[in-house]
Amino acid sequence: MLTTQGNDNIQRLADKAFAYGKTEGDHNTSIKGLTAHIRNNPTEPLHCIYTLSLSMILQGGKQLAIENDLLPCVAGQSMLTTFDLPVVSHVTEATRYNPFVALVLKLDYELIIQTCAELELDKPARDMKYKAISIHDIDAGLCNAVMRLLDLEKEPIYLESLAPLIKKEIITRLLLGPHGAHLRYLASSGSPSTKILNVVTWMKSNLASDVDINALAERAHMSASSFRQHFKSLTGTSPLQYIKNLRLQEARDKMLLNGLDASQASGLVGYESASQFSREYSRLFGFPPQKDIQRLRQA
Q1: Where does a domain end: 186, 202, 218?
Q2: Residues 159 and 197 in one domain
Q3: Residue 14 sits in which domain range?
Q4: Do 107 and 229 have their domain in common?
Q5: Which terminus of the chain has fewer CB atoms gathered within 10 Å of its CB, N or C?
Q6: Which ranges of the chain would DSSP assign to H, the alpha helix?
């Protein structure tokens, strides 16, 4: 339960984030990896990939769908994503006079590993139930650290020297706070999540390559059956479905952001058949490629 002071701190941070963007949309800040997100109305469910990051919902609310699980996240809560996940996300609470406002900070995996080692934290229990996405109330310390990071926009002379220190403080607070067990699990050397993360990193860099489950399992230093089991427990889906979602999302981004047509985008992510691409695209996003991109641009 948030205290009155906690609510006041979150509202001040929401005002700072809103003042930065002011208009509806996604806004980059001058702080690397920190973005502000503002919506004036609830949105349609959108398929996207959540990456290693901290999200802070400051006004309004949103909901994520991961396979059969629905995860609501409302004002005053933080959401830590420790593993790249295909999700369906939509803003559920937003109006013109009380818009949805969120800040998202991408996290540095190497800095997490380094900070975890410096703190000499114990590895999480082997039987812990790891979650790729965890949601908890924003505590005052975390709120203040993010506020100080955002305030560096006003003092650019300190940005280069102080931003890395505040980002490390944020990671320290995450490791020692309610999200900590899941973040420490990610950082544990030799843990299944680390091995699967290495495979996912390879997948993202080789979307157009042929995928063989046995080769992926070998890359993870696991048997094929163990690899499938751990992969699904982390991502909620099979390796083949996961890379299919990555390919379709990447093709969608290329069409939306780079102006490519479906044939060009599908070829770049490894599809040889345009009809197969269109079928699988429609199955995932609900519309054929051209109609979907037109819809997104109009929105």
Answers
A1: 186
A2: no
A3: 4-186
A4: no
A5: N
A6: 4-21, 109-119, 140-151, 156-176, 180-187, 192-205, 213-219, 224-235, 239-258, 262-268, 274-285, 289-298
Query: Exposed, middle or buried, 40 (CB in 10 Å: 0-12/13-18/19+)?
Result: middle
Q: Are residues 99 and 207 in the same domain?
A: no
The whole model's pTM is what? 0.82
SS3 245: helix
Say whether both 200 and 180 belong to one domain.
no
**Domain end marker among 186, 205, 236:** 186
CATH for 248: 1.10.10.60
Residuewise pLDDT in 10s, the chain (299 residues): 444 456 888 999 999 888 876 788 899 998 999 999 999 999 988 888 888 999 999 999 999 988 778 899 999 999 999 888 888 899 999 999 999 999 999 999 889 989 988 998 877 776 667 778 999 999 999 999 999 999 998 898 999 999 999 999 999 999 999 999 888 887 775 567 778 888 888 998 898 888 889 999 999 889 999 999 888 877 878 899 899 999 999 999 999 888 899 999 999 999 989 899 999 999 988 899 999 998 888 76
